[in-house]
Amino acid sequence: MFYQIRKWWRGRAVQQLNRDAREIIRRDSAAYTDRHLTTIANMLRTYLAEFESSPQTASRRREIAMRLKSRHREARRRHDQAVLTAATLAIIYRRGLEAGESAAPACEAVQVFLDRYADNEDVTVGG
Predict the structure, then answer these.
(1) Which of 23, 41, 63, 124 is the most buried (most CB within 10 A)?
(2) Which tens digits make up the pLDDT trace of 52-86?
(3) For the residues of 8-57, what is the DSSP string, one character each?
(4) Quick check: 41 and 117 in contact, CB under 8 A?
């Protein structure tokens, strides 16, 4: 019984990731200029590059997750929408990778956002 509840709960969490990624990108694309979206995408790319560049030990993943949460909390406190959006999308992308194939739409939405708005220099994410 607990297994079924846990499986259901994880499924709901993945659905929420997929929905949040799509909604955040839709909302910000409608509200902000391309210049602001480029700023967000460049920050997001930096956050994701940090996540992907280091050895993926459990303690390192936790450290990066805590750093992202800290950035998110600080951006919310300062009302810095660009950092808040970038940190939120980085958290969604990271959780989507951990969730696997069922969260592919969330990761894909973030990647499409990066492909569209990030500057084409420096670091690339995902390969």
Answers:
(1) 41
(2) 776 677 788 788 888 889 999 999 999 999 999 99
(3) HHHHHHHHHHHHHHHHHHHHHHHHS-HHHHHHHHHHHHHHHHHHHHS---
(4) yes
Q: How far apart, in whole angstroms, are the C-alpha atoms of residue 42 and residue 63?
A: 21
Q: Name residue, tokens 């050895």.
A: 55
Residue 54 near residue 72, CB atoms below 8 Å = no
What distance in Å separates the CA atoms of residue 38 and residue 59, rounded to the nearest whole number? 31
Exposure string of 87-115, with b = 16+ CB inside 10 Å and e = fewer, is: bbbbbbbbbbbebeeebebbbebbeebbe
Q: Which residue has the higher pLDDT, 71 or 8?
A: 71
Q: Distance (Å, rounded) from C-alpha 33 to C-alpha 89?
A: 18
In this structure, of 6-15, 51-60, 85-94, the range with the lowest mean pLDDT score is 51-60
CB proximity list for 56: less than 8 A, separation 6 or greater: none
